[in-house]
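pls ignore typos typing on phone
glutamine + seq
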Amino acid sequence: MQKESDGSKGKKRKFVVVAGSLMSGLGKGIVTSSVGKILQSHNLKVVPLKFDGYLNVDCGTMNPYRHGEVFVLDDGTECDMDLGTYERFLNVNLNKSNSLTGGKIFSLVIDKERKGGYLGYDVQFVPHLTNEIKKWVKGVGDSFDADVVMVEVGGTVGDLENGYFLEAMRQMSFEEEVLFVQLTYVPTLEALGEQKTKPTQHANRLLASLGINPKVVICREVEPLSKEARKKIALYCNVDEDAIIDDPDTDTIYGVPELFEKQRLCATILEKLGVKTNGSDLKEWNKLVHSIRHPGEVATIGITGKYTALKDAYVSIKEALVHAGAHCDVGVKIKWVETTEIEDGKLLVSALDECDGIIVPGGFGARGSEGKIKCINYARKNGIPFLGLCFGLQMAVVEWARNECGMTGANSTEIDADTHYPVIDLLPEQKSVKDKGATMRLGAYPCKIKKGTKTFQAYGKEEVSERHRHRFEVNPELAGKLEEKGLVLSGKSPDGKIVEMIEWPEGFGIATQAHPEFKSRLEKPAPLFQAFLQAVKEKKKKK
Ligand code: GLN
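k done
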């Protein structure tokens, strides 16, 4: 896109604001990312920003069981999992500025007030808070030098929590070029076999009462809209018929950009924003989507964990498998293994029998840990490819210590503070930490990979960087003992002090203290996930 050089570039920048109406769970993050992707495919620099109304400063203290996965960015920001969706679709690295919460903006205003930043004034939602929000949103555009800032408003229109944010966006629409997108749900009354648009009309009116008039309406539904339903929405919501977009359930979220493109959504948005481009190119992306849909073979991957009731708790792992699978022609069927149910060992074989590979993901606390150790041992003894992620590495170290080094009762001090063999222990800098928010070892850290290892083979280089979120580590005092018995310490921090990755001497078993799933994108899968699926594939061939 042509940028102006007369200093009025801010005017040229476009803002697309996605607001969800009627109910949560409609997939605002996927819609925002997909719209971002099609705009990006027109060679525009797209930057996403998520607003969340809750008063937490970040997601770090939230329970993934209640809220879904806590996603981690390079700079250590613990944020909403939508940021993960943005990164996975847009293949960009985001930072703390891309996530704005109620807690963050209120802290900023209150801190500023204490410092005399609003001296003489009574500090109000309008204009003080809304000004800070606008400044933030525009600042993100500036710092990324974006052509388009995609703003996703968390929650639902009508919520108390996001009202002030929507008000800020309304104000901004008179200062900048802003296009509002309403995401809505169109139910079908089965008895009548008819799609009902009235909820959407009411929600649109609610937005209008806030001074917001969406120019695009995206409809979640079971079947594409009927002609009548489309006409009604157009009439009552003041939108062009071709700006009403179908978003029915789909087999893969990565197919949504193409679904939107087929309805010429991007052309509609670009026209409304007055942007001319030289056309789009989604070919490579669509090729990958095709591989997701038509894999050469399907593998069953067991993922152990205690949050298996809520799949959102492990969304990055699920997606990392999809990405790696698209690149090595494997479709992945996930088998969730509730480790608390196999602690006594009885149901272990039936739980893992059909698994072609096993992943032990991150976790906290004792519950289910013995079951995870059993799964790892089963994988190792039966030559099933294994990938351990963070807590998964810690449990793999415990398993090795107990079964190969004769360290009976070895454990992590997180689980057993009095263990005789504390093979996993608190990181030294964690010992004095009292606060819970943003105090773990967070964000991207460099790691040096040992040449000649399978880990090295996976990355193909010595220096790598992965994202972290933990308080414990392999106890440096006992690491040597593990190594003596053959465990390969395949990755360490550049100063050699922290064990970052390990691998089994036999078979495919790699574990990392990091969360490589956080850096996996459809266009750039995580090397360890790819190596893992490749090992799964080879193992299946031998079966
Ligand atoms: N509970 C472990 C730690 O704090 C592992 C954390 C995780 O898996 N993210 O070190």
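The pocket of glutamine is lined by residues 362-364, 390-391, 414, 469-472 (CB under 6 Å). Residues 1-11 have pLDDT under 50 and may be disordered. more later
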